[in-house]
Amino acid sequence: MASPPGPARLAALLLLALLAGPAASRFAPADNHLIACGATAPAVLPDGRRFVPDSGCASMTLRSAAPALPSAAPGAPAPAPPSPLHAAARVFSCHASYDLAVRRRGRHVLRLHFYPFSPALASACFHVGAGGFLLLHNFTAPSPVVKDFLLPVDADVLVLTFVPEAGSAAFVNAIELFSAPDELVGDIGTLVAAAGVNRTDGLSSQVFETLYRINVAGRKVTPFNDTLWRTWVNDEGFLVSKESSSSKAWSFGGRIAYPKDSRLMTREVAPDNVYNSARSVRSDGNLTWDFPVPARNRYLVRMHFCDIVSKALYQLYFSIYVNGHLAAKDFDISSTTGYLAYPYYIDYVVDVDDEGMLKLAIGGSKMSRPGEASGFLNGLEIMRMNKTGGGMDVDFPAVLDMGYLVSKGFGEFARSLLCGLVFAGLFLVFVMLVLRLRTELKNNGTLWFSQSMDSGDGKLAKAYQLVPTKTDY
Ligand SMILES: *[C@@H]1O[C@H](CO)[C@@H](O)[C@H](O)[C@H]1NC(C)=O
Ligand SMILES: *[C@@H]1O[C@H](CO)[C@@H](O)[C@H](O)[C@H]1NC(C)=O
Ligand SMILES: *[C@@H]1O[C@H](CO)[C@@H](O)[C@H](O)[C@H]1NC(C)=O
Ligand SMILES: *[C@@H]1O[C@H](CO)[C@@H](O)[C@H](O)[C@H]1NC(C)=O
Ligand SMILES: *[C@@H]1O[C@H](CO)[C@@H](O)[C@H](O)[C@H]1NC(C)=O
């Protein structure tokens, strides 16, 4: 009775499959700001993402010729920067803020790209705040760096503020702000201390700064291959005893099995490329990694496990040590997941005091068969948590005004006067650079003082207007 599907129906099915394919495999954040600061044209990354210029703002644009500045003869072609995002920067001589529209409140990933292509940028010292948190304090970027944060956003606008330290400037090359998937960090973790382990909650109101993302025994994972455009690096540089005969590296060609319809364990937590490699240890050994971290901070240590090592369930039992403390004894991954090749992670919270070193270890157990793999690890993330006052490095210094609205007082007036002087100095340097490079300054002289946001750029540009808070003179 059923008629064979006609060509029209087949075409419709094919179209549906095509439409559903990318939607199902790619995470689509509700908020997705990708900004190439100071750029004049959109920058497209190898991972396919398109960063749009932050045009229409009242500050300086450094063009791609700038990286060659110290040595290049006038007219010589500049060497191509490593990333299209590194070709330009936005430089601030005073308090400045980006207002980023937020459609969906909740946790967001914020990445700030710093590529100091001139000595002035490499020595710039400044502070960066967002949503009431002090993310970077007295920060300098002498070499290229991406600062990666996960922060709660509880407003319709996220104000990202740059404050230069006295006599310095602030800069940024690119900004990513996108909605984090709900399952990325839960509210509950396991607090590990000398006294033992305990449950801790309130993680969802924290800011996290990712210091390490490690693909144990695996290849570097680039944003191209990561579901949230992250970078994961190999663990060998942090491994304490590489030559140990009791450890072994594994890689897996099969399929990583994600729980069906699970809201907690998805490919956004970590990509397959992290779960399909691991390092194992036998029952008589330990695998230890050391990570230098800033002292006197609280950390979230996420350990990723996926049993690609065993041939059958219930073969592996191991201990987990966090900062020298026993966090789990004879941990049985099979009972926890119920399947092989099934990803799982544990969030440990730990305080690092004066030693400035975070030690993580996996130890074998006598419950496992001697001579066989006993414990393993696939991936690691180490994230610094904010301090009580809302600062990352330090408690939020009261003197540092990261506020968005300028209060008009004499202090403000004096500060803006000082700012104006620094500003004029920077402007002079800029003019000299322009002359030296003989590049054409396409924008007219009102660039610095322009208050109008370019309406020609439409809605997108409106969403993240740069707000010069102290340049209205
Ligand atoms: C930044 O560091 C300098 C030198 O260490 C210090 O004098 C200054 O007070 C710091 N700035 C803030 C806002 O803490
Ligand atoms: C665990 O936390 C609870 C509540 O904060 C506390 O009463 C208990 O003493 C803690 N246990 C340990 C072993 O620290
Ligand atoms: C992405 O992952 C695949 C498979 O692991 C690998 O062959 C490829 O080189 C990776 N691409 C990039 C750009 O990292
Ligand atoms: C592994 O390390 C832990 C903690 O440092 C230690 O207690 C244990 O004895 C070690 N096991 C072996 C087999 O070296
Ligand atoms: C981080 O900041 C939040 C919000 O200000 C605060 O509730 C939390 O206690 C802070 N974290 C720590 C470890 O103090």
TrEMBL record:
Molecular function per GO: ATP binding; transmembrane receptor protein tyrosine kinase activity
Cellular component, GO, one term: membrane
Subcellular location: Membrane
Keyword Transmembrane helix assigned: yes
Malectin-like domain location: 87-384
Signal peptide positions (record): 1-25
UniProt keyword Signal, yes or no: yes
Entry-linked InterPro entries: ANXUR1/2-like, Malectin-like_Carb-bd_dom
Stretches that traverse the bilayer: 413-435
Entry keyword set: ATP-binding, Glycoprotein, Membrane, Nucleotide-binding, Signal, Transferase, Transmembrane, Transmembrane helix
Membrane-topology descriptor: Single-pass type I membrane protein
Pfam families: Malectin_like
Name of the protein in question: Malectin-like domain-containing protein
Species: Triticum aestivum
